[in-house]
Amino acid sequence: MDWDADVIIVGAGPAGSSAAYFLGKAGYRVLVLEKCVLPRYKTCAGGVPTSAMHYFPFDFAPVIEQYIYRASFIYQDKQVTQSVPDGSLVMVMRDSFDYFILGRTKAEVVQGVEVQGVIAGNAGYEVKTRDGKSFSSRYVLGADGPNSIVAKSMGMGRNRQMGIALEVEAEVSPQVLESFQGRFLVGLGDLQKGYYWIFPKSGHLSVGLGTMHKGGDKQLFSTLSRVMAKYDIDPERFSYKAHPLPVYKSPNGSLQKGGVLLLGDSAGLVDPLTGEGIRHAIESGYLAAHCIANNQIGQYSNLVNSKIANDLYFAKRVSDFFYRHQKLSFECLVRNKIVFQDLINIITHQLKYKKGILKFPYYLLNFWQRIGTDY
Questions:
Q1: Residue 68: what are its φ and ψ, rounded to 5°?
Q2: Measuring CA to CA, how many Å separate 315 from each of 44, 120, 259, 331?
Q3: Sorting pLDDT into bands at 50, 70 and 90, what band is 3?
Q4: CB atoms within 10 A of CB 298
Q5: 218 C-beta neighbours (distance < 10 Å), count
Q6: What is the Cα–Cα distance from 271 to 276, expressed in whole angstroms?
Q7: What CA–CA distance (Å, rounded) separates 174 from 369?
Q8: Residue 280: which of 262, 303, 263, 297 has the closest Cα?
Q9: What angle is formed at CA 58 by the lines to CA 341 and CA 248, rounded to 5 degrees?
Q10: Using CA atoms, how far apart are residues 192 and 180, in angstroms rounded to an integer?
Q11: What residues contact residue 25 under an 8 Å CB cut-off, 6+ apart?
Q12: What's CA 284's distance to the chain center, in Å?
C-alpha cells in the first residue's frame, strides 16, 4: 500500500514535535496534523527541567525566558525560599518552545486541520479530518492533548483524572518583575488539591493556579484574582485562559492499541503533585520513536510504565497526602531544609518520588527533632 506517511502524529506540542524529530532522524516519513496555526498560545506555567532538553542535540537558549535559581513556597503568612541547583530549571513560553522543536524536524506539517477520528484497517490506519480529508499510515501517534480524539477513537485514555489550570500572562511594574527575577513562587492553602503559582518570564509574569478540586469556575476566578491583587497585579487588566489538566491517575489504562500510541497529555502523563508534564511529553515522544524505529512497537506501554508512569504512581500517593494536609506538609516537609532540597530535586527530576517516599521516616524524625526552631 502507498501510505501518505509512515507515521501520522496528531498534535504538534512537545510530545508530538519530539516524536516527529526523532522519527525523522531515523529516516521515517512523518506527517504532523495540527488543528491550530502555529505558533499558538498554550496555557502552561512554562517551567521545564533542563533534563528534558538533554534528549536533543541542539541548544534551547533562544527560547529560554528565565533561568531559575530560587524557589519560594508560601502558606498563609509563612514563606520559605531556597536555592535551586544551577541550570536545572528554566522558564519558557509554550508557543515559542513547541514551535522551536517542530522547526527542527523533517516532518511534513499540516496546520489548521482538525482530526475527526482514526479508523483501523487491515494493515494500517486512516486518519479523517473534519474538512473531509483522510490520510493513511502504518502508525498513528496521539499527541492531541487532554481531550484526545485519537484516544477516544481507539477506546483508550482512561488512566487520567481531569483537573483545570487557569492562567494570566501579566505585565507588571519593573519593581514587581525584578522581585521575581530567577525565582518562582508556589502558594499553598488557597486551593483544595492544588496550588497557585507565579513564574517569571523575560518581560512579564505567568500567574495561575491548578487544581483537581471540582469547584466552580467562579471560585477559581475569584481565587486567582485575589492572589494577583496580593502581589500588586491588577486582576482587571488581563484576560484569563483556562485549560484541562489531565493528571495521572493509575497505571491500569492502556497507552497503545496496535500501531496507535498515546503520548504526553493524551496519555495522562502529568505529575499529580506539580502539574508538570513537558518532560514526560518529550520522553514519551522519544520512547514512541524508539519503539517504532527498533520494531518494538508492542513494548511502548511497558516502556512508558517503567520509565514514567511507575514514578507517577508514587507521585499520586505523595500528592494525595500533600494536598489533603497542606498545613502539615508545609510545616513538616517544605519548611525543613533537607526535605525542601529533595522536593526541588523531584521538581527538577534529579530524584525519583519512590526514593523520596522511602526517606519519609527520616523526614518525620528530623521534623520532630526540630520542633520549635525556625527553619
A1: -100, 130
A2: 20, 35, 29, 20
A3: confident
A4: 11
A5: 8
A6: 5
A7: 42
A8: 263
A9: 50
A10: 25
A11: 106
A12: 12
Residue in this structure with the C-alpha cell 482512561, named with its chain if needed? 158
- Which residues fall within 8 angstroms of residue 372, CB to CB, at 6 or more apart? none
C-alpha cell at 1: 500500500
pLDDT at site 159: 62
Confidence of residue 375 (pLDDT cuts 50, 70, 90): very low
Cα separation, 137 vs 16, whole angstroms: 16
- Of the chain, the percentage scoring pLDDT greater than 70 comes to 91
DSSP for residue 270: B
Is the predicted pLDDT of residue 373 greater than 80, yes or no? no
Q: How far apart are CA 98 and CA 146, in angstroms?
A: 16
Least confident of 138-142, 215-219, 270-274: 215-219
DSSP single-letter state for residue 37: P
| Region of residue 182 (phi > 0: left; psi between -120 and 50: alpha; otherwise: beta) | left
Predicted TM-score (pTM) of the model is 0.93
Q: Grid coordinates 502539574 are at which residue?
A: 275
The 8-class DSSP code of residue 274 comes to T
Instruction: Pull the grid cell for residue 352.
Output: 525519583
Quickly tell me which residue has 466552580 as its cell. Answer: 216
Show Cβ contacts of residue 151 under 8 Å, excluding neighbours closer than 6 positions.
142, 157, 262, 266
Alpha-carbon gap, residue 206 to 66, rounded angstroms = 12
Taking the alpha carbons at both ends of the chain, their separation in whole angstroms is 67
| C-alpha cell read off for 55 | 534528549
